[in-house]
């Protein structure tokens, strides 16, 4: 083995020029001259590294090393500083995350040096114009996890493939996945959690809580709008990884299989990203990676305005769908505004609020020349369509926050009786109102988006914020 100073421009682990480049940014080591940064190389299933190599400060706060003369393609790695193992923020996969909401004690999370080769068979992005799209938003786990889904690979990427024929019959052109990267649903990864954040994870005992590595009870983040390892698909969403828990298999191929299968049926794949406390450069590199490595057709992104402008102007992403909240610069045809005002206007008009006709007419005709508008009446954040016509108020008691969480103003109407009812008159009115709402979305000038399950009256029992509930309440029935 030979090693030398590596390139600081290729973060994480990259195989180049017959060798392995490792680069890691450490502000801690830069401020503490007596602290060294290491890359630790593990053999499969080992808990102790067989190589521990010191990285050299290369540029700014980036430490790197370039290794040749040895084959470690089948090995795993992580970084180490201040006597702590640290998962690479650029990791393409992460071990020991195969079971949702479960963390073993003394677990060491590492990442494969090399992913498995994959044959895309000439698969490409579909580039369906916004004006020809009908979008369908779902949570990968929740869409097929229920016993009612009748799929083999429940709650996984493979489970979505099993439902692809159904999606095709609906006329869906584009599915939007809620976060499906390796987000931290239970406080696994310490480098993303300061003491203040950790203290907020201590709650009373409740069915929505699990044990994390600190033996504290933490609330499960079922939705995924939290920090994580943005370059890696979520292992717990892989049927392959779940079946082989404890023995690493390259589960990233299952995400690729899903994209390739859906593309073959003319269905695009868009994914949500919730970026927090990361740089614009990181965001750009991440989105480019998913487009190149996983052939996704677009992103629905939460980040700062500087990063949004960078994404909008990026030449490599010029034909990739980029959706965000309140995008108001109608000069980029691949950008779209995911505007919550549309939802509220439709809801208020639907239930008969006064002085809503002009706002409704303006919304129906809104269609900028050089950017898109995404229209929806329901999304994951709020009532389902069925609950919108069944409940006047939220019922979030199961969340463990005494019904204080979730939106208080839902602009909903229960059509005469709160919750389930046997009254035929009320039930018929509810069905008619749901059809009215869907007609408003489908016939408006913008791109329609439907929440998974709304087409067959899926209910969350009046819960408008089941972000921490991982059971039949939040799963699609």
Helix/strand layout:
Blueprint: E1 2-4, E2 12-16, E3 19-25, H1 27-31, E4 37-42, E5 51-54, E6 56-59, E7 62-68, E8 76-81, E9 84-86, E10 111-112, E11 135-138, H2 140-144, H3 157-162, H4 164-170, E12 174-177, E13 181-183, H5 195-199, E14 209-211, E15 217-219, E16 228-233, H6 239-243, H7 252-264, E17 268-274, H8 280-294, E18 298-302, H9 305-313, E19 321-324, E20 335-338, H10 340-350, H11 357-365, E21 372-375, H12 385-388, H13 424-443, E22 447-451
Give a short overview.
The chain has 13 helices and 22 strands.
Q: Rounded to an integer, what's the Rg over CA atoms?
A: 24 Å
Biggest pleated sheet: 8 strands, parallel, barrel
Mean pLDDT: 91
Instruction: Describe the global form.
Output: globular
Strand proportion, as a percent range, falls in 15-25%
Number of E-state strands = 22
Task: Work out the helix count.
Answer: 13
Uncertain regions spanning at least 5 consecutive residues: 191-207
Binned, the helix content reads 10-25%
Structural class: alpha/beta
First-last Cα distance = 55 Å
Order of strands side by side in the largest beta sheet? 11-12-17-18-19-20-21-22
